[in-house]
Structures are given as structure tokens and as C-alpha cells.
Amino acid sequence: MSKMLKYSLLFAIATLVSRGFGLIRDVVLAHEFGAGYEFDAYVIAISFPFLLRRSFAEGAMTSAFLPLYNEKGKSNEFASAVITSLGLIALILTICVELFPQIVPTMFSSGASENTVLLASKLVRITMPFLIAIFLWSVLYGILNSHGKFFLAALSPVMMNIGIITFTLLLKNIKEPIFGPAIGFVTGGIMMFLLLLPVALKIGFRYKPTLKGIGEFFSLFIPAFLTMALSQINTVVDINVASFLKAGSVSVMQYANRLYQLPFGIFGIAMSTVVLPVLVNERSKYQEHLSEGVMLSLFLTVPAAVGLGVISKPLVSLIYEHGAFTATDTALTGNVLLFYALGLPFYSTTAVLSRAYHAKKNMRTPFRATLISVSLNVALDVVFARLIGVAGIALATSVAGVTSTLYLWKISPTFDLKRFSKIICASTLMGIIVAAINSLHASRLWTLLMVCLGALSYLAFCRMFHLEEVQQIKKIFRK
């Protein structure tokens, strides 16, 4: 377990730095644009390239690339073939959207106002080249992970956040200041690729145009990509349903999702990223590593979900409520974040279980799980949005995550119920303490205090319950 925990902590620390800059980015965007039609248009414009980033880099690319890259005697030739084939696809997609930019707002915001659609069509022509840069980055990301270089790969998205922050501030006085973050989005994607390139070259990667041996890769990539693309339909449906609600609903959902993605990226993505190469490289200990991956994921995400739920509104107020972002926006965003938090442990567990199937080159089972989850999410989006507004969209997402986890559980990881019970008890006690502190006072400094005390109290309760993860973490930091 120490190896998996060590790699996960390295990945989590790097991701924490990146997500920290992500929060700064969101603070800047909230201050400059609030929750209005301009920011709605920006969210729509980045949705398509960002969706493909998740499908390529954080999903299909890694899942199909790593098992084959580690098996191939000619790893450079294989990586070059991947770059050549998928690079052409990325280029064609980019050209098509540049020629017909209205495709994106039509896909992602069928209920948006005319002003929002027109502005989104302009912005998407700026943001779309991000796809080419991020595709190249995703190949280098897979190469670094296969060689155990998790830290820099996880840190690289900080460049995108730096790009958005920089250009938002530099161009805030132009006629249409929303063009600033769009330009920064693309610039940041290029910087992400350039950050990983020297390390990949040092490892020994050299590109030579070829398509040799690409057939086996596509036999794994296509179903994995369809699974990830299908899962991203949730995002498309969520934005579309939100666009039919009152103005600013898309923005509110985006702000809440950013906060939800902070613990999910630090803990959930960390575990799923690390578990795949470990399972591939150490097949003799497959079941042991899988079980540890699931338990570590729960150890990290259950308390995070409880914490997010308890201090959702104070946290939103701390980060966003200034400038154009109002107290009303805080209340709406806090409600959405609360319902997103419910699904955090389930989506993190689903990510680990999916990678376990991918390590065995089984792409069909995760696809079926995603199909069921997406179908349920689409149905519940409409129902819950009518009942409780934009918060219902987040609730539908969480319920769909539970369904996906239950379906994938048939891979049968060994589950330590006693250990899990201790995690639940420690998280519940932590939540009670944070809720009590929250009721005593209200200020931004007080919210920071609650976050710190929550983390410390959880670790203290885990130690009291003799959870072995605490000792492992202590040993790793001592080294």
C-alpha cells in the first residue's frame, strides 16, 4: 500500500497546487464577470474542448495507452503512432469548429439567449485550438505516468490556470473583456504541453511519423473514448437543462462544480491515475492493489464530501462573494455544491473501479455502467430541475454516480467493512465539530479555520480508531 499511497500523495500535492491556482482563477472570474450571460457564454465556449480534454487525457488516452505502452518493445514507435493518428483527428475537429462555430452553442446551450449564443460562437473560435495542444499534452502525460513521474504530470494543469488569470487581468479593459480568459485558456494549454516536453525527451521519447501498430491501440481506445464521451454527455445535458432556467444558472452550476472538482481532482483523480499503472505493472498483486485503491479513495473522499456539505455556503462566500458575485449567487451556488458533494465518494470509487477493468483491457463493462448512469442522469435532470431548480441538476448527477459504482462493483474488490465503518465514524464526528464551529460565528477567516480544524480533527479521529493510513502518511512525510 505504501507505494500506491506515496504516488497518490505526490499526485494529490501537485493537484492541490494546480487546483489552488484554479480557485484563484475562479475568484478572478467571479469578481470580473459574476454570474451573467458573458460568463455563461465563456463556459459554453470552453465546454467542448474541455470535454474532449477529459475524454482524451483523463480517460480514454490513459486507459488505452498505458497497458499497451508498457507491453510494447518499441514504446517510442507506439507513442509516435498515437500522436500521428489522433493528431490528425484533433486537427480535423478543430478546423470543423472554426468553420462552423455555432455547432458548440447549439450542442451545449439550446435554451440560451440570442446574446449568449452569439458571444459563445465568437469565443469558441478562440478556445478550440486548445484541443490540439491538450492532445499532445495527453500523450506526454501518459508517458510520464508510465515511468512513475506523477508529480509534474499532475502539476502541469496549473499552466492553464495561470494563463487564464494572466490574460483576464491584462485584457479586462478591452471592449469585450470576456475575450481575455478565452485567450488565456488556449495559451495555458500550450504551456501545459511545453512544461512536460523536456521531461519526456529526457526519459527518451522521440517522435517519428508512423502509423505502425496503431490497430490494437484503437481497439482499446475507441470503446474507452466512447465511455468517456458518453460520461461527458452528463455535462452537455446539465448545461442544456440549466440554460432553460433563469439567467446565471449555467454560471452558478459552473462555480459549484469547480469547488466539487477540487477534492475530486486531488483525491479521486489521484487514486484512479495511480492505480492504473500499478495494476498494469504488478499484475500478480492485482486484487490486493485494487482493494487498497478503493479503500484509500474512500478514506480521502468521504470526509471531503462531509466537509463540503457542512460548509458549502460559507466556502462559496469565502471564495466567490465579492465584486459582481452577490449574496444571492452565494446561496444558489452553495445549494448546488451541497448536492454535488453527495456523489463525491461514489464518483471517486467509480474512477478506481473503471481503471481496474481497463488494466485487464476490459472496456465494455465501464461502457455499460456509464450508459446506465448517463441515461438515469438525463431523466433525473429534467425531473429534479423542475422540482428544486439548478440544485436538482447536481442531485441527479450524484444519484447517477451511485448507480455507476454499484454496477462496477461486480469486479468484487475485497471490502474491509470494519475499516470503512471507522472512516464513516471519523468523518461524521469531524462533520459535527465543523457544524458546531460554523454555528458560532460567520466570517471568511472563520471559514478558513473550519477547513483546517476539520482536516486535523478527521486525522485525529482516524488515529484514535487506529486506521493504518494515518501511520502510512506519517512515514511517507518523514521520509
Summarize this structure briefly.
Helix content is 84%, strand content 0%.
Strand content: under 5%
CA-atom Rg in angstroms: 21 Å
Number of strands: 0
Largest sheet: none
Between the first and last Cα atoms, what is the distance in angstroms?
A: 16 Å
- State the shape: globular
The chain-level mean pLDDT equals 85
Structure description:
With 479 residues, the protein is mostly helical. The chain folds into two domains: 414 residues, no CATH class; 58 residues, no CATH class. The protein is 84% helix and 0% strand. It contains 20 helices and no strands. The longest helix has 35 residues. It is globular. The two termini are 16 Å apart. The mean pLDDT is 85.
Primary descriptors:
single chain; mainly alpha; 2 domains; 479 residues; 20 helices; globular
List the helices and strands and how they pair.
Blueprint: H1 2-33, H2 37-71, H3 75-99, H4 103-108, H5 114-127, H6 130-146, H7 150-155, H8 158-170, H9 179-203, H10 214-243, H11 249-281, H12 286-310, H13 312-320, H14 327-342, H15 344-359, H16 364-388, H17 390-408, H18 417-440, H19 444-464, H20 468-478
